[in-house]
Design the sequence.
């Protein structure tokens, strides 16, 4: 059932076995996985079915350096489906090495292994509408599929790992009907959790405070609560819930909000491939299930250990769009149209300096002098992207010259100094706003540098290509647009030690019996992969844990005690 | 009853009826009379299932009837009425009646055998509900009536749920439908339907009440999963993502002329397979409907052990690959 929180009686107390705060990819996946197991599930979604300006404004906050990190209300959507309403759809699983404690990377290591998460990836892939859980090009595309570079064979540089693309699927619209039909799920729209109430004696959450923008207030008494509000908002809610924990919930050791990670990303270098352009596969393939998939360059785990690398990938990319010297009508067309493109997708079309009139003129000349390519691109874009349900994932140019830049996407070394914290400014619901202080380190840059060196050496050895990059400008190239937008990771990290982590291997807040976190906030490290697929898989794993735990336990005494007082209005869901 | 049970199978040349007659003929406890209103195969009999006299004639000496009749409203509803009257007149004590999940109306979610019926889902549902009411009347008159409500009956040889789907997939008119294909398929293997019918024929007599059983395999997937699996298995790749708009246009604009053309070809004695299958609008509704049939009674009372989905898929895909889908 889906209804609006404004229909709940003022000061009522609802009851749920599991109350999930947040109806994005994590919350929806978790709710669906819990359905049909004899549990009552309430999902508190702050937003509506569509974007709602006043609700979206609740994300407003500060950033320490706008050049390094987007404002907190960008790259996020406060609505049913969450940020899947605007995501790019790239699905990639984490690698086994991501879960290992890597001596050369401080604060690395998960308390679970890749094998612990593996059983949940196929279903995560299905929910994300990314086809089969098959990320090896030979397996997914068949042994006859053309390689990335004909004649290139390396044990160090891998070219057979794939990224797959979701439609991109908006979890809110795609799964609304499942949520409506499920008799044991009650999604409340417009419902903002503003405080987590603790029962001190049992070290447990007893109820969640809920407010709506229209002024309605009520509570949800729970057997278990799950925060699935994303990497930024989860930390905000934990830190702001100070009624039972002065430093914020789970923050006994000042870890909540720290170790905040995004990805180190940017276009670097020039890769010149020898031979015919037809021998290079730089674009998208289509798998038998009809999924767009693309090969990437990565470094084999053994070589990562040997060279002390972070986990990273590189994609074959076109030159910097903003620089008209590329003489490409399509890229110049994109540059000129950037004002009509959303903030999130246009960000990399604005690289700081305001374009001058001659730069505009050069771009315009590129468009005019390249009419065939530009028209073909527009036709393809219209048919395969604008009008298609499964959208062509990104701009791919025809390879004429065998010259590419490398689009890097690298993990960031976890650091307590990179953090989010509360400010004194309040939102309309009385919640303190967030200040984002994302930081990277020279170690992050140096790890990418070493990776590029390893790749350059391998290409040189093979004779297939030559990779050059400017060592002096590498940091600028990687930080030109700041942190990769939308990947908010690590602010309630998972670990065995409460002094350096917030949740345990089951995603349960160390200090509480029944409060859990779903989403990328719990990732201790960020991998080369985009976070969505893994946060869905982790949510499904949490679902299994909760079903097992709550199914085993009898309804606790505390819930019965809460339900007893006369002023409590039991709004248990009707079947 | 001396000797094997004599079972009249109405609709005996249809998909389920044919398979059932083959199986009953192979048993020592039953002898099937394969009846059809259209034509007669082997030792079968020709019966006008809406004609009381024709039915009375066919029912002499029959111990049980299995009603697999498909067709239009008249064949389903009036046929059931005539059958009940004929059984009462001839003293035939048992009817196993094949109904449909459509009797549950537009309801969504999990539906068990004892859920209330609802005829509001079009002429087919109305006819099926009317037929079930006739079975209730038969039980009240002292007969034993067992109603089976299968989901979508599939397996090798199923034109409706394998052959037709494969043709849509090969033509890229069907694929991954997103939310429009998120409904439960409620597939049930034809062998499991026959298992249930055989068990229903041997249930102890229960005059006075109708026993109704849903038939859908618990592991039957959502439609999208079935479409993609079948497409991969028959090589209809790459699977397309089909928009709801395309699906609706295909059904509402393409459907009527294709249906007319198909009928015209059939009348001219040409193979209708030359004309693409029309996409009936009710299929579009079915594929997005979140109805999940639960079949605990079939397991408990009829002892049905479901054919795994993977097995049904392998068998069905092999049948398609052998080129039999236009047969």
Sequence:
């Amino acid at each position: 059932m889906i209804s609006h929180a404004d229909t709940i009686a003022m000061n009522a107390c609802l009851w749920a076995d599991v109350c999930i705060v947040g109806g994005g990819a994590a919350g929806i996946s978790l709710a669906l996985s819990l359905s049909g197991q004899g549990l009552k599930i309430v999902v508190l979604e702050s937003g509506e079915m569509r974007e709602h300006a006043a609700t979206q404004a609740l994300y407003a906050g500060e950033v320490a350096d706008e050049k390094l990190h987007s404002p907190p209300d960008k790259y996020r959507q406060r609505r049913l489906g969450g940020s899947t309403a605007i995501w790019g759809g790239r699905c990639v699983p984490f690698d086994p090495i991501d879960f290992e404690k890597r001596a050369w990377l401080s604060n690395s290591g998960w308390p679970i292994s890749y094998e612990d998460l593996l059983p949940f990836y196929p279903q995560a892939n299905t929910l994300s509408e990314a086809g089969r859980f098959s990320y090896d090009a030979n397996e997914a595309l068949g042994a006859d599929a053309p390689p990335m570079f004909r004649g290139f064979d390396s044990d160090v540089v891998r070219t057979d790992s794939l990224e797959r693309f979701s439609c991109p699927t908006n979890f809110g619209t795609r799964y609304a009907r499942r949520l409506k039909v499920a008799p044991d799920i009650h999604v409340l729209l417009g419902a903002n959790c503003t405080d987590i109430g603790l029962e001190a004696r049992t070290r447990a959450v007893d109820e969640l405070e809920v407010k709506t923008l229209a002024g309605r207030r009520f509570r949800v008494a729970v057997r278990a609560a799950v925060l699935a509000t994303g990497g930024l908002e989860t930390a905000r809610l934990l830190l702001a819930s100070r009624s039972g924990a002065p430093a914020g919930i789970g923050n006994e050791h000042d870890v909540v909000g720290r170790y905040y990670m995004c990805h180190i990303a940017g276009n670097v270098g020039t890769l010149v491939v020898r031979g015919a352009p037809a021998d290079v596969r730089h674009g998208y393939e289509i798998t038998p299930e009809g999924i767009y998939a693309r090969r990437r360059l990565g470094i084999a785990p053994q070589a990562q250990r040997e060279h002390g690398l972070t986990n990273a990938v590189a994609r074959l990319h076109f030159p910097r769009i903003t620089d008209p010297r590329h003489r490409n009508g399509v890229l110049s067309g994109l540059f000129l149209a950037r004002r009509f493109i959303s903030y999130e997708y246009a960000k990399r079309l604005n690289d700081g300096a305001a374009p001058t009139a001659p730069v505009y003129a050069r771009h315009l000349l590129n468009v005019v002098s390249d009419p065939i390519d530009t028209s073909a691109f527009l036709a393809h874009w219209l048919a395969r992207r604008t009008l298609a349900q499964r959208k062509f994932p990104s701009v791919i140019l025809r390879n004429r010259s065998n010259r590419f830049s490398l689009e890097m996407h690298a993990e960031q070394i976890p650091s307590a100094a990179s953090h989010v914290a509360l400010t004194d400014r309040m939102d309309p619901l009385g919640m303190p706003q967030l200040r984002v202080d994302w930081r990277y380190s020279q170690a992050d840059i140096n790890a990418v540098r070493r990776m590029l060196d390893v790749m350059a050496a391998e290409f040189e050895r093979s004779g297939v290509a030559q990779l050059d990059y400017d060592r002096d400008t590498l940091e600028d190239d990687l930080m030109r647009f700041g942190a990769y937008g939308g990947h908010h990771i690590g602010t309630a990290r998972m670990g065995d030690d409460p002094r350096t982590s917030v949740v345990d291997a089951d995603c349960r807040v160390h200090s509480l019996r029944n409060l859990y976190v779903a989403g990328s906030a719990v990732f201790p490290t960020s991998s080369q992969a985009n976070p969505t697929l893994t946060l869905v898989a982790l949510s499904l794993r949490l679902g299994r844990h909760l079903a097992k735990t709550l199914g085993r336990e009898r309804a606790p005494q505390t819930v019965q005690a809460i339900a007893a007082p006369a002023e409590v209005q039991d709004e248990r869901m009707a079947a | 009853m001396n000797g094997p049970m004599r079972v009249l199978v109405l609709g005996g040349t249809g998909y389920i009826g044919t398979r059932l007659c083959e199986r009953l003929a192979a048993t020592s406890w039953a002898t099937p009379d394969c009846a059809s209103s259209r034509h007669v195969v082997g030792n079968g009999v020709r019966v006008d299932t809406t004609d009381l006299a024709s039915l009375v004639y066919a029912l002499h000496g029959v111990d049980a009837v299995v009603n697999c009749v498909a067709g239009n409203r008249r064949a389903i509803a009036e046929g059931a009425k005539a059958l009940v009257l004929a059984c009462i007149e001839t003293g035939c004590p048992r009817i196993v009646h094949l109904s449909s999940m459509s009797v549950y109306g537009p309801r969504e979610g999990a539906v068990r055998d004892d859920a209330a019926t609802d005829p509001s889902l079009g002429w087919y549902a109305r006819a099926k509900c009317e037929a079930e009411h006739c079975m209730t009347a038969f039980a009240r008159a002292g007969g034993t009536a067992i109603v089976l409500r299968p989901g979508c009956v599939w397996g090798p040889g199923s034109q409706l749920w394998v052959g037709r789907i494969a043709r849509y997939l090969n033509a890229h008119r069907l694929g991954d439908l997103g939310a429009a294909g998120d409904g439960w398929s409620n597939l049930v293997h034809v062998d499991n339907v026959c298992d249930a019918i055989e068990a229903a024929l041997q249930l102890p007599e229960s005059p006075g009440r109708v026993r109704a059983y849903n038939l859908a395999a618990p592991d039957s997937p959502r439609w999208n999963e079935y479409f993609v699996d079948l497409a991969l298995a028959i090589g209809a790749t790459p699977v397309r993502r089909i928009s709801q708009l395309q699906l609706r246009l295909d059904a509402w604009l393409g459907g009527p002329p294709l249906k007319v053309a198909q009928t015209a070809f059939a009348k001219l004695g040409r193979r209708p397979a030359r004309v693409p299958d029309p996409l009936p609008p009710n299929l579009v509704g079915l594929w997005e409907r979140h109805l999940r049939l639960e079949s605990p009674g079939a397991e408990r009372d009829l002892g049905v052990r479901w054919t795994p989905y993977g097995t049904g898929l392998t068998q069905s895909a092999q049948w398609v690959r052998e080129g039999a889908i236009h047969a």
